[in-house]
Specification:
mainly alpha; globular
Amino acid sequence: MEGPAPHAPDRRVIFTRAGILRGARDTLPLWLGMLPFGLVVGIIADAKGLTFLETVLMSAIVYAGAAQLLALELWTDPAPIGAAALAALVVNIRMAPMGAALAGWLDRLRGWRLWGTLATMVDHSFAMAVREQRAGGRDAGYLLGVGLGLWVAWLLCTAIGHLAGSAVRVPPGHPLYFASVAAFLSIMVGLWRGPRVDLGPWVVAGLLAVAAHRAGLPAPVPLLGGTLAGAALGAWIELRDQARRPPPAAGSAASAPQGPAPGDRG
């Protein structure tokens, strides 16, 4: 007579304060990389005539470096609100596939947990959350913690840039501009799963983005084109591997249903 099936590990998504604190703590090494970009945004905001309070409020509400920089470049008197809003929408449309990629966590959140996480999600927090998921993490509070940690850093950096004002002059092409890119690349190292899975999508995304840029296409078309092409190839590879993978045995962790975490309704 067969004994009872072994108890499958609990893989339900949870949301804890400990996860939030751990996510915020993991962002500390990235603060230095955000400093140059934040300084530039703050300096430009000061040059465009925004007050200190307006600059801080813009960073707190918009919380999107590329969109803020683009909006500031378009800033005139009177301000072209419609054009700036449309430009910010186009730049940030890349966040839509990021949300879809994290649906395993986001679909199980409700109320302030969901909306707070979505409001503070940026490129770096997305990359760190994907790395956490691939490592077996199931605490969705980690994503909110990362977003909040980076949000605080962004407020501080842009505020310092505005206060510095004309005292800080960073010429175009200065190596400091590469700091935020370098910080993001350091996160990408943890996402690498080997050439069989990731080499093709990463190469296709990079080549298409560079080709679109050299063709003179305006931003953010190169970024969006490369992102969508790489994501499409990556999704095809994932689906192909899933089709070749044998179905999980009954009672295994993979076949155990996932329900929402207790008390995750806000």
